[in-house]
Design brief:
Blueprint: E1 9-10, H1 32-56, E2 60-67, H2 73-81, E3 89-93, H3 99-102, E4 120-124, H4 133-136, H5 154-171, E5 174-182, H6 185-197, H7 207-211, H8 216-230, E6 237-241, H9 245-263, H10 273-288, E7 306-310, E8 315-318, H11 322-335, H12 337-340, H13 343-357, E9 362-364, H14 366-379
Parallel strand pairs: 2-4, 2-5, 3-4, 5-6, 7-9
Antiparallel strand pairs: 1-6, 7-8
Bound molecules: adenosine-5'-triphosphate (ATP) and magnesium ion.
The site of adenosine-5'-triphosphate has 15 residues, from helix 4.
């Protein structure tokens, strides 16, 4: 297993070719069970680095997500960013522009979504739509343009404008990292079918998404051009294989972790006058505590117990970020529950025991104990 994400990174030199990219890549893993421990570990590290990023407030960070429909953007965002502290992260979903947005330049609506220093903005779709659907459907042709701009290569100019925009942001304290979840046409069809077949997923159905498959090749060309024309060292693109949701989530966790490591945030040192003065109050504060005692040591974040509950519908590990691990591990399995019934429970239990074996404190709830007893009974 190769932990490097270099293979998926486009930073200006390497060319992305949709034909040569395997959306079903699993990076040498056999299955999601092998990935879960690294995933949990990455989330913990991300969590700690985010605390520092927020405390330090030096630089803002934007993660841009682009993908064909049903590639799993929402799931990736939910699982990878779920453990971050809400005060330092915000998601923005960019849909078809409103008439007000349409009456401005295409970058106008993004300014107010940029993160303050120390925070993270997640762009669930972005200005890249303007060189994706905008290019495929030639949407710019519906816009009114001043006479002097008639006949210009609008899309060609946008690649250049976006590169400059991101460079400007980089130079003024905001880093933009872009992630393209690359799902195959076959896998997209499978996911659409399951949105039709599985009642729980019906709400995700969209006829438009299905019809859009007609333009698949044109979209792939647009994604290729987007990556090749807007990748830079400072604002790289990552093209992530997305046919296996758990793998995409793992890779995105690596990307987020790697980005934060590169930014290398640290808690600011407060040794100024204010600190000196606070020190003078220290003893008075202790004296004001009823029993005059301080705790021996602060609890380790890592040692937080996790509580697990399993029922027919869902598997949840309570406490961050282990909850997400279970979801990552179990996510697709949840959907199959009506077909497979009990296999879910077994998988849930093995996930839990794996976590327990690798040193996570697992608190067994009544449901789990019952599930274990039941499955033991079955085995005889
Ligand atoms: P989900 O379907 O998971 O709720 P979504 O991101 O697909 O999330 P939708 O409302 O279904 O949300 O789709 C948003 C649509 O908005 C996409 O089809 C996208 O192409 C379109 N869109 C986003 N930005 C632009 C833009 N600048 N110009 C035209 N269309 C855009
Ligand atoms: Mg949609």
């Amino acid at each position: 297993m190769n932990r490097s994400i270099g293979k998926y990174r486009y930073a200006g030199r390497k060319k992305f070719s949709a034909d040569k990219f395997d959306p079903a890549d699993k990076g040498g893993f056999q299955g999601r069970e092998e990935a879960v421990l690294e995933f949990v570990d990455n989330l913990k590290k991300i969590n700690r680095l985010q605390q520092k990023l927020y405390a330090e407030r030096k630089e803002g960070l934007v993660f841009v997500f682009q993908a064909m429909d049903a590639a799993g953007k929402d799931g990736v965002i939910r699982t990878v960013f779920n453990t971050l502290s809400p005060h330092g992260v915000k998601e923005y979903c960019f849909k078809v522009p409103s008439s007000e947005e349409m009456s401005h330049d295409y970058l106008w609506r993004f300014w107010s979504a940029l993160p303050p220093r120390g925070s993270i903005s997640i762009f669930n779709r972005s200005y890249y739509e303007d060189v994706l659907v905008g290019r495929v459907k030639e949407l710019y042709k519906n816009q009114t343009w001043p006479d002097r701009l008639k006949g210009t290569d609008v899309i060609g100019q946008r690649y250049h404008q976006i590169r400059e925009y991101e460079k400007y942001l980089y130079e003024t304290g905001t880093r933009v990292v872009k992630i393209f979840l690359n799902v195959s046409k076959d896998e997209q069809a499978r996911r659409f079918v399951s949105r039709i077949d599985v009642p729980k997923k019906n709400w995700k159905l969209s006829l438009n998404d299905i019809k859009e498959r007609e333009y698949w090749d044109a979209y792939m060309e647009a994604f290729e051009a987007m990556v090749n024309r807007t990748s830079t060292k400072e604002s790289p693109w990552y093209v992530v294989p997305a046919d296996h949701k758990w793998y995409a989530r793992l890779i995105v966790s690596r990307i987020v972790l790697q980005t934060l490591k590169e930014m290398n945030p640290d808690y600011p040192v407060n040794n100024g006058e204010e600190f000196e003065q606070a020190m003078q109050y220290r003893q008075a504060l202790i004296d004001s505590i009823t029993d005059g005692k301080l705790p021996d040591s602060l609890p380790e974040a890592d040692a937080l117990p996790i509580e697990v509950s399993i029922d027919e519908e869902d598997v949840r590990l309570f406490s961050e970020p282990d909850a997400i691990a279970a979801e990552m591990l179990m996510g697709e399995e949840f959907q199959k529950i009506s077909e497979k019934g009990r296999s879910l429970k077994k998988k849930g239990l093995s996930a839990v025991s794996r976590l327990a074996k690798s040193g996570y404190k697992v608190k067994y709830t009544d449901e789990i104990i019952k599930a274990v007893v039941d499955s033991d009974k079955k085995k005889g």
